[in-house]
Protein: Restriction endonuclease
Organism: Leptospira selangorensis
Amino acid sequence: MKIVETYSHLNGLEYLLVHKKKLFKEIEAVVKDIDADKYRTKVSKEKTMLGKLLYSPEEMNAAFHERLSKLGWEESRVSYWVTQDAKLIRKTLTMDKDDQKKEIELHGYKPILSYNQTDYVKDRVAIEVQFGKYSFVAYDLFVKHLAFYVGDKIDVGIEILPMKSLQIEMSSGPGYYEGELYNVVRQGRGVPSVPLVILGIAP
């Protein structure tokens, strides 16, 4: 496969190329090493494409997982406490997890433990490979990467998405690079407030 398009949000790519160039080279090598044609294994049951062989998102995800895991990219989780009071959440947002809980209890509210999980983290860089439903992409960009950044666990997040040319040949309805690029640009230059790199890939 190959990286067809790259979008840098809040200088995410520039940060990688200056401070984490080796990691970015790893990602490029992983993408290049995956032969998409091996994963054109799903027989379509949709009326408009009945019987057509499509790319399998599950198998492509597994291919990325195998390669990234071998290079030391690991799943990571950030836990935090929430409550129903917006002012209190603003106050505790950047606190340590234990301090969040104490502060919420101090104000007479019940703290609720929550967490965000990301598929791959290495040396303060997070990767999400997203071949799932399109709604998951927004969650990655506007919640997951941001939570890890605010929690001081990462310096930049990377989202790997299929180009539209690949997405229309896949067996589910994942998000695609061009559509998600529009969604990010539409929010304005500072939203989400986390440096990101969005990669569009295709066979």
In short: Residues 10 and 145 are 13 Å apart (CA to CA).
